[in-house]
Design a protein that fits this description.
The N terminus is likely disordered. By secondary structure, this protein is an all-alpha fold. The protein is about 70% helix and about 0% strand. The longest helix has about 30 residues.
Length: about 350
């Protein structure tokens, strides 16, 4: 239930809002792992391997980049786990900047995220979703751009309604889609292991041959890999909604990020088992090409998996992004009515 409160912006009222406005603690360990892994696993692992290989030049160096990106994400997660257990407030980077550096830089971060960064990221993910979702309806030709854009807009509208209705509904959808995308990645992993067992190891012979040594290409390859790991920090945006955050936050990170890193490495091994380096580089969509070569008539499952993956990632972005608006409004940096969007009494 929502009850009326004062709407003035005096320091006393701001302090009262910080103390009295809290979201229910409904996110447990499984939902926390699902939020991190589900947001990280989007379209990147199905698209980025081609570009990592393009800039690195060899399969072995590409795998090193993927492992290094996972290690870098793990270091960042450890730092965020410490911040989240010290500052037990939702809002992620916003609340940490506010408490450490003050109001003005936090204000700038909040508005740049809400107006530019998050909408652009969400639009890109939803467009990726719509491309794979409508592709089966246009076999043998490219999908009309108007259909792709309308589908992306419908996806955004649906996710808006879901996240406005109920926290449990949003987390349940997150759990379901995370399980679906993990299953899809396991299918690719198992398919690759079967190919390796049959002796398809050509890509791993002289695996470091043609490796690029320049700083520029390595940096761009890192950028491509890190895009696939984006989202490891999203659980810090919902710290107040975690059950026992001092325990759940670090545990969820310690489970989700190594899990995603191992899956990414195994999926890349599967790609190299099914394709040579030249075939992988000429592929417009690595996962789809893998499906055509390994699954045959069942290749449509890969397109479906990518659509499910990007939809789940969009939901995670929505889930955490709404908390940024709520916390910024609670702190007086956004219109105070924004806090009512997620307002539940303790």
């Amino acid at each position: 239930m929502m009850r009326k409160r004062k709407t003035t912006d005096s320091p006393t009222d701001l302090s009262e809002r910080r103390e009295n406005l809290r979201l229910k603690q409904e996110v447990g360990l499984i939902s926390g792992v699902s939020l991190i892994a589900g947001t990280m696993i989007g379209s990147g692992i199905f698209m980025s391997p081609e570009w990592v290989l393009h800039h690195m030049g060899s399969p072995a160096s590409s795998l090193l980049i993927w492992a290094s990106c996972g290690l870098l994400a793990m270091f960042g997660a450890l730092s965020y786990a410490e911040l989240g257990t010290i500052i037990k407030e939702s809002g992620g980077e916003y609340i940490y900047i506010l408490r450490i550096f003050g109001s003005f830089p936090a204000f700038l971060f909040a508005y740049s995220s809400v107006i530019l960064v998050r909408p652009a990221s969400l639009a890109a993910i939803c467009l990726s979703f719509s491309e794979y979702a409508v592709a089966p309806f246009y076999p043998g030709c490219s999908s009309p751009q108007i259909v792709i854009r309308f589908t992306a807009a419908a996806c955004i509208l649906l996710l808006t309604i879901i996240n406005c209705l109920n926290v449990r509904l949003a987390t349940s959808i997150m759990n379901i889609f995370t399980a679906a995308k993990l299953l899809a990645l396991l299918v690719i992993v198992v398919g690759g292991l079967v190919l390796l067992a049959k002796g398809q190891t050509q890509s791993f012979q002289n695996a470091f041959q043609n490796t690029t040594a320049g700083i520029g290409p390595v940096g761009v390859a890192f950028y491509q890999g890190l895009w696939s790991y984006d989202g490891w920090n999203n659980l810090n945006y919902v710290t107040e909604e975690l059950k026992k955050p001092e325990v759940t936050l670090p545990r969820a990170m310690m489970i989700a990020i190594p899990l995603v890193t191992c899956l990414y490495l195994l999926v890349n091994v599967s790609y190299f088992a099914a394709m040579t380096s030249s075939e992988l580089l000429s592929s417009g969509a690595v996962a789809v090409t893998w499906g055509d070569k390994v699954l045959g008539s069942w290749a449509w499952l890969i397109s479906l998996s990518v659509a499910l993956s990007t939809f789940g990632s969009s939901n995670g972005t929505f889930f955490s992004g709404g908390r940024l608006c709520y916390i910024a409004a609670r702190e007086g940096h956004m219109p105070h009515n924004f806090r009512k969007l997620l307002w539940t009494d303790t």
